[in-house]
Amino acid sequence: MITLEQAKGLQIGQVIYHAIYRNADGTPQCWRVNGKVKTWKRDSNRIRIPLKRGLYNHGYLDERSLGITCLTEEEALQG
Asked: Which residues are paired to 22 by β-bridges?
């Protein structure tokens, strides 16, 4: 799982792996950080990170969905 501090340190182009969703061959889905990490001044625990997967899939990673993402493929396969 990614911690809040690790998520704040993500850079554009870095790859993260989904712990639940899998590809057809059984490997975890990988998502690429597509933009800058957004944080809020009033609530330091709130983040929003734009993600991209493939050509048409876009999404966001926020503080509620940190528990289902991992930094390495091995962590995603174990979880």
From this structure: 28
pTM reported for the whole predicted model: 0.89
Indicate if the pLDDT at residue 61 is higher than 80: yes
List C-alpha distances in Å: 18 to 13, 29, 42, 44, 68: 16, 5, 29, 24, 6
- Per domain, the residue ranges of the chain are 4-78
Q: Which CATH number fits domain 4-78: 2.60.40, 3.40.50, 2.30.30, 2.60.120?
A: 2.30.30
DSSP tag of 78: H
Chain centre to alpha carbon of residue 68: 8
